Description:
By secondary structure, this protein is of the alpha/beta class. It has helices at 12-26, 31-38, 42-49, 57-67, 76-84, 92-99, 120-132, 138-154, 170-173, 179-193, 243-259, 263-277, and strands at 104-109, 162-168, 198-203, 217-221, 227-232, 237-240.
Amino acid sequence: MNRKELNPDASPHAAYGARLRSLRESRGWTQDDLAARMEYSSVHISAVETGRKPPTLRFSRSADMALGLAGTADAFEREYREIKHGALLEGFPEYVKYEGRAVEIRLFNMGIVPGLLQTPEYARTVADGDVQRGAITPEQAEERVAFLAQRQAALVRPRAPMMLVVMDESCLRHAVGGAEVMERQLQRLVEVASLPNWVIQVSPFEIGARRSFNLPMNLLTMPDLSVIAYAESQLRGHVERETAVVLPLLTAYHQLQAEALSQAASVAVIEQVRKGIS
Length: 278
């Protein structure tokens, strides 16, 4: 039987199929074996593995049950939702795979509250704004909000990651939705700041040129203590794993934390802004 070589870099569907084959073969299963466990035909399994047929939500959930991945960071349902987000920036799905396993997550954002801190109402308003601009479809907006909820839920685990967040003051001042949406979002920031594994700092406008970054920056510390960086432009995102590139970014983040307000002072600013809109 001819075995088709797979190129996981060819497309998101190809990466999905290659991973499905790899996990199947690591268990010593044939396509018939997996098909029986998933209640699909072996022809269907083959078509997904080789990228000839796109996965569906039902297929992904069935694969997760068969492979013991349901509810984990490596779930095929999670990967399916990433693929469905055609509006996601290039590079972001790759980043999310690392995010689900990180032991420390450092975030810097401007203008918009970081996704992992957004309330459902705030996230919905942001997604609806993209729909109104024609950037994504209503269906993609639904998927985006659901996917964000999954990412947030993945942070609640037995060994929760340490979350270090620096937000430019513009994240607090930029009105998203009405007063009620913003009031609830700011309240959420205050609540999260009281959790033992979260540190939230505000980078005030007064920092000026001393601010380390002019674009959003995510830095992940993995279980082996390696650090992965993720940065976005307007057009694409990029995951960087090279130590020589990542370490200066980590240094810049530490410098940013030193310039930012303390957590207590940051919470006071958040409360001040909150009272101003209520």
